[in-house]
Amino acid sequence: MDRDMAEITVTAIPAFADNYIWLVSTGGDQCAVVDPGDAGPVEQVLKQTGLELSYILITHHHADHTGGMAELVSSHGAQVYGPADSRISSLDRILAENDTVSLPLLELEFRVLEVPGHTRSHIAFYGHGCLFCGDTLFSAGCGRLFEGTPEQMQVSLDKLAALPADTQVFCAHEYTLSNCDFARAVEPDNVQLLRRASEVEAARAIGRSTVPSQLGEELAVNPFLRSREPSVIAAAQKRNPGAEAGASTLAEIRAWKDSF
Ligand code: ZN
Ligand code: FE
Fold first, then answer.
1. Pick from 220, 176, 215, 219: which is nearest to 198 by CA?
2. Sign of the CA dihedral with 80 first, then 85, 90, and 91 last
3. Is this structure's pTM higher than 0.85?
4. Active site residues
């Protein structure tokens, strides 16, 4: 496949209070959506744009990411691709680490990364400079550890952190403002974080989205991608003097965030 043929366009479809369902298209009349928690807002956009839904990509089983699947499949016959998990019904293809997902009608291909932590079967999709990471990585934050260990989340976040710095991070929630508040508590002297936080405040004040962000910037401001930075380790050690670089620091700041 000639990857240069298709130019990817990603559009946000807001859903519920703070979810983003990502609509992916390439200039033709077909499209894909990532994590359609609700069919209604997707149907509305399909109607407005005249796009036909060919593919549904699922990152994890939570209802706010899968709730609209069945309805969209029955009205559009879209193919559904997602992780191996009995809690997600009727997938056309089950995906695992390093699989390639081809969307031939869009001339796009994505690589699958297994990123357990938020849930045990969570996956992410990477391709064409875009990362769809569900609830694993947020801008300036990460997902709660519902089913995984800090060690697993550390490995998952390391995998995402290793992608090219200019990767656009399409996470599934608009949590950036509160994430920045917490990140500032962890690293009050991080100048790049302070700059990002004021940009985010300005954007949210006029109702603008703060997603996607750039991976390179996340590496500089997101405390959950910085568990080996002395400043973040020091913050973790205030809660637990035994915290060390990596998973144990991630564990402390994640637990701190849970009650922040
Ligand atoms: Zn979730
Ligand atoms: Fe979610």
1. 176
2. positive
3. yes
4. 60, 62, 64-65, 118, 135, 173
Q: How far is the CA of 241 from the centre of ligand 1 (A)?
A: 31
Residue 188: phi and psi, rounded to 5, are: -65, -20
Chunked mean pLDDT (size 10), the chain, 260 residues: 72 98 98 98 98 98 98 98 96 98 97 98 98 98 98 98 98 98 98 98 98 98 98 98 98 98
For residue 101, tell me if it sits in a domain. yes
> How many whole angstroms from 28 Cα to the centroid of ligand 2?
29
Determine the 3-state secondary structure of 98 from DSSP: coil
Structural domains of the chain, count: 1
Backbone dihedral region for residue 139 (phi beyond 0: left; psi -120 to 50: alpha; all else: beta): beta
Task: Name the token pair of 107.
Answer: 């001339």
- Measured between alpha carbons, how far is 219 from 229 in angstroms, rounded to an integer? 11
What is the domain range of residue 72?
A: 9-176+209-214
Query: How far does the chain reach from its first CA to its final CA, in angstroms?
Result: 47
Kindly state the tokens that stand for 149: 């260990």
Place of tokens 């962000």: 213
